[in-house]
Design brief:
By secondary structure, the protein is an alpha/beta fold. The protein contains 18 helices and 7 strands. It is 48% helix and 17% strand. Helix 5 packs across helix 6 and helix 16 packs across helix 17.
Length: 405
């Protein structure tokens, strides 16, 4: 292979191309030939250095070249990697199996993927902007770079105490081992730290829930350092109350009032819904639990014969629906609904809405995690009025929660 490069000829050609409006970067860009030569020259230098000393003494020699196409921010270039007989040469300038050279280009691909673009859409965008068409397989392998980060994020240590935690699930279609689409849920555990900042403690993929599943989730949190959760807010997750009672027995469980109201109104005739809702508001907007119980009794007297199942649902879940009455109005507004975690899920769906079916759990987890890393950039500041909330929690839980100095 000839390593000669006529710089004067390159310069003359480059000037003519620039005059003709040829861009600097892209498939036919002006600078691509120069970059290609520099990279190949650097690889030759690496091989010369590798074969010095003991390698040559042991009889190792050059053994031709291996060509491949590499995508760069300057355009696509042809790399001719030298080979040695013993196969001990490990190039650093352009590493083995590396098809994307510029980290900035790889970061751009990951960024485009993180906002919900498909591999085909990313390929189209890059071809339009840089003149490069990158295969879907290459794009997928680049986005796989995030997998080690996910694996290190999952078991990371957590704080000792979290004052408020929300739990909820978001559902997706995923291909199973038989290549059939099935519904998978990502159960997210979103918390407020003692400084009042949002933190996603974990995300867990599962087709079903129950006491065993939630016991595993809570045990994972415990193993990662969590010793106490003051208040856990959720939407009737099956098996969760029993599981948290065994792992964090002092935690107060608050069922989402908004979900309970929605579920109730579904079973009320449309002609009665407006009046029923006016009476139901007297229950969950009462000043205290005693007043709420009186309002529920009145609701049953008026509507119990028409809607006994609705009233029974409130009675069966009463203690967990009314846990928020023991707190101030300020804390009530934070915990009586799961809107916080639902807001997070709405942001996830903006990214995943164009995904019909994910090819695997890994593909689902990868995109959701990348979306999460973008969303959490909006979480650096404490939630509104956290100072006042923290003082009230410190008074209510003097042995379990302390304001950080």
């Amino acid at each position: 292979m000839s390593n000669s490069f006529d710089f004067e000829q390159f310069k003359a050609n480059a000037i003519e191309q620039l005059k003709a409006g040829v861009p600097l970067s892209g498939k036919e860009g002006v600078l691509a030939p120069l970059l290609e030569n520099l990279l190949n020259s650097a690889l030759e230098g690496e091989m010369d250095s590798h074969l010095e000393g003991s390698e040559r003494e042991w009889g190792n020699r050059r053994n031709g070249h291996m060509s491949k196409q590499v995508q760069t921010s300057m355009g696509e270039v042809t790399i001719n990697t030298p080979r040695d007989r013993d196969g001990t040469f490990d190039p650093q300038v352009v590493r083995k199996r590396e098809k994307i050279l510029a980290d900035s280009l790889a970061d751009r691909i990951i960024g485009l993927y993180a906002i919900g673009n498909s591999t085909r859409e990313i390929s189209d965008i890059l071809e339009e902007q840089f003149g490069n068409r990158i295969s879907a397989e290459t794009i997928s392998s680049i986005t796989d770079r995030v997998l080690p980060e996910i694996q290190s994020w999952k078991p990371r240590p957590l704080d000792r105490v979290y004052p408020i935690v929300w739990l909820d699930a978001v559902h997706y279609k995923v291909m199973d081992e038989k290549n059939h689409p099935v519904t998978q849920a990502i159960y997210n555990v979103l918390a407020l730290t003692c400084e009042g900042r949002k933190e996603l403690l974990g995300m867990y993929i599962s087709r079903s829930e129950g006491a065993n599943f939630w016991f595993g989730v809570l045990t994972d949190l415990q193993n990662r350092g969590v010793q106490d959760i003051l208040i856990a807010c959720m939407d009737g997750l099956k098996g969760f109350p029993d599981a948290i009672a065994s792992v964090f027995p002092e935690t107060t469980v608050q069922l989402c009032i908004v979900h309970q109201v929605r579920n109730s109104i579904k079973y009320v005739a449309s002609k009665n819904q407006k009046e029923f809702m006016r009476d139901l508001k007297l229950v969950y907007q009462a000043v205290n639990k005693d007043a709420a119980e009186k309002a529920l009794d009145d609701l049953e007297i008026k509507w119990g014969e028409d809607y006994p199942i609705v009233i029974k649902s409130w009675r069966d879940n009463w203690d967990r629906l009314t846990a928020y009455f023991q707190y101030s109005q300020h804390i009530r507004r934070i915990i009586y609904t799961t809107n916080t975690v639902e807001g997070y899920h709405r942001q996830l769906r903006k990214v995943t809405k164009n995904k019909g079916v994910f090819t695997s759990d890994t593909a689902l987890e990868k995109l959701v995690y990348l979306a999460f890393t973008r969303i959490r950039k909006k979480w650096p500041q404490p939630v509104q009025n956290w100072g006042q909330t923290a003082q009230q929690l410190a008074i209510l839980f003097p042995d379990r929660f302390r304001i950080l100095a």
